[in-house]
Amino acid sequence: MKISIACASTQGTPIHIKVLDGIRGLAILLVLMSHGFGAFTIQTRSEAIFKHVLASYGWMGVDLFFVLSGFLITGILLKTKHKANYFKNFYMRRVLRIFPLYYFIILVSFFILPKLGGWWTTAFRNGSTELPWFLSYLMNYLGTVTVPLGHFWSLCVEEQFYLLWPLLVWCLSYRMIIILCLIGLMTSPVLRWIVFSHGVTVGAINFYSATHADALLCGALLATVSHAKSGLLQYRRFATFFFVFSGIVVAGIYGLSILRLLPEALNVSLNFSFVAVFFAALLVMVVTAENSAWYIQVFDSSLLCWLGKYSYGIYVFNGPVYRFLAQHFGGEEYIMPIYMGSQIPFVVYFGILTAFLSCALAYLSYHVMEKHFLKLKRFF
User: Fold this and answer.
1) How far is residue 245 from each of residues 11, 265, 358, measured CA to CA in Å?
2) pLDDT 10s digits, 57-112
């Protein structure tokens, strides 16, 4: 018997699906590993290996979030596009989910923490200049961000997607949405190649919505195809192939880049595309799997589902937490204390500590503040 979410999720029903919390949990776990095990300056070969193995792939967690967001949001939009108050209901539900914590952190970070003195005052020394970019969800176009909220770039990319995509879904047929997604997926690598060739930095390409739309479009494509074709079950065998193939390509790109055998322009151009395909294929495998599949048991685990439930708060808090602690323990150069001739033992402790504090703050935030706003979603 196929897992029930195969039908429910692919038809865009806005219900809570536990196993998708597990996918969110994997995404935030990758981010926690990247920040927790990567916030130090390499001093030895063993430290370089440690950092490459445990922290270098963490950025992909954001792309997994993007694929899942594109899939779920598009599914909801397609299901409700012919209902009354389509725009009002969608935007109000997004506001109630995202704005309270986002603007609470903005308030605390820019107006309260700098008054504490020390590192916090220094970290927000350019706060008055950067604040308008954060308030308007445009900080991903700011360039260099000095405040310890640089990870908010991904929230801005998603918010910009939420602003435009409902209108396109409302205006276009299933066929045209699929064509639009395919055009976007095919042109994104070309666009990255062009802008990189004209001097745009890798960081900027990563942060700009137009050059990092692959994962959101992959998720949106899956949702649209599932609605138009009555589910994704028929694509499961193709998903397995694309999962393996794109995984090999991503690993190859990463390996060749480390060995400096791959032109940087090619790396920048292709990497996001294949990572998006990899996670999109994983999503199809999960939503069409049988209950007995081993990876369903993994994504249904209590740990990943718990992390997924609080993933938004964990992500929001993790940035300032790891930045503050990294500077506190490692100084301006991020060189951690040495034990047994290496930074690794302390970095492991640091990673666990930052993850624990981020999870604790997210849990408190959800139960003290966020869930009360979420209760208002029933009116929309």
Assistant:
1) 27, 21, 35
2) 888 999 999 999 999 999 999 999 999 999 999 999 999 999 999 999 999 999 99
Listed in sequence order, the DSSP H helices in the chain are 5-10, 18-38, 45-54, 60-80, 86-107, 119-123, 127-135, 153-171, 174-197, 202-207, 214-228, 236-258, 264-287, 294-299, 302-309, 311-330, 344-365, 371-374
Instruction: Find how far residue 329's CA is from the centre of its chain.
Output: 27
Q: What's the CA gap between 154 and 144, in Å, rounded? A: 15
Residue-wise pLDDT for 300-340, tens only, equals 999 999 999 999 999 999 999 999 999 999 887 889 999 98
How far is the C-alpha of 304 from the C-alpha of 254, rounded, in Å?
26
Q: Which residues of 323-340 are buried (b: 16+ CB within 10 A; e: fewer)?
A: bbbbbebbeeebebeeee
Residues present in the chain in total: 380
The pair of structure tokens assigned to 128 is 């008055």
Give the pTM. Answer: 0.93
Nearest in space to 254 (alpha carbons), one of 111, 42, 59, 29: 59
Classify the C-alpha dihedral 6-8-14-17 as positive or negative: negative
Domain boundaries, the chain: 5-379
Neighbouring residues of 212: CB distance < 8 A, sequence distance ≥ 6: 66, 157, 205, 206, 272
14: alpha, beta or left? (left if phi > 0; alpha if psi -120 to 50): beta
Residue 183 tokens read as: 């055009």
